[in-house]
Amino acid sequence: MPVTQSPVTLRVGSRDSKLALAQTELIIGELKKAHPQLTIELSTMKTIGDKRQDVAMNKIGDKGLFTKELETGLSENTIDVVVHSLKDIPTQLPENMLLAAIHGRADPRDCVIMAPRNQGKKLEDLAEGSVIGTGSVRRVAQLRRQYPHLEFADVRGNLNTRLAKLDAPDSVYDALVLAVAGIERLQLGARIAHALDTVLYAVGQGALGVEVRADDVQTRELVACLNSRSVRL
């Protein structure tokens, strides 16, 4: 694996949530292994998806909700690399942006996290009318057919914020549906009540995407070590 021959500084951008930072630190760790002389600077920011907590995601629009501000940083050359959850990246990237690497995929499934009052239960055990929190139209469409006795309500915020809403004593939610990969990357796997093997997960869920400027040859070469061929295919 190539090693940088002279000191280089790489500016990495990330959302400022705990999960986004955990994922970015994972990528930074891999880069440091491959390029020991590399100096890495981390910059964090909020995206429109982080800022607009009062509106359901499908009502804001799903293009670039968690990527636009980071891509602006790339375009303005204030950062060199952005780490995304692959499922958050729009199919069409902005001009001069390139998905330079796709990093190894964690468990892609969705899972159920129960409120404290429902510990030990599964979705099928919940009383009729119990409220399941999820901001995903995809999840609701599938789960409503499988669990017609349940109600579904939007829940916004990063992963830790959603868990705090679930755990509040006056929570309206009986359970949340979240991605296994995110829960496990934050070392919270013990909270998973059960995985949803019958629910089709999002394209790219569990994998990390590394975005750079298409004309930045040096950075493209530096991050090439992150590519997982089997996941990319």
In short:
The protein is α/β, with parallel strands linked by helices and 233 residues long.
Description:
The strands form 2 sheets. Strands 2-1-3-10-4 form a 5-stranded mixed beta sheet, with helices on both faces. It has a 5-stranded mixed beta sheet with strand order 7-6-8-5-9, sandwiched between helices. Strand 1, helix 1 and strand 2 form a beta-alpha-beta unit. The longest helix is centred in the first third of the chain and has 17 residues. The chain is 30% helix and 23% strand. It is built from 9 helices and 10 strands. It is an alpha/beta fold. It starts with 7 loop residues before the first strand and ends with a helix. The N terminus is likely disordered.
List keywords for this structure.
single chain; 233 residues; five-stranded mixed β-sheet; elongated; disordered N terminus; alpha/beta
Task: Spell out the blueprint of helices and strands.
Layout (H helix, E strand, L loop, with lengths): L7 E8 L2 H17 L3 E8 L2 H4 L5 H4 L7 H8 L5 E5 L11 E7 L6 E5 L16 E3 L3 H10 L4 E3 L5 H9 L7 E5 H6 L6 E4 L12 E6 L3 H7 L5 H4 L1
Parallel strand pairs: 1-2, 1-3, 6-7, 6-8
Antiparallel strand pairs: 3-10, 4-10, 5-8, 5-9
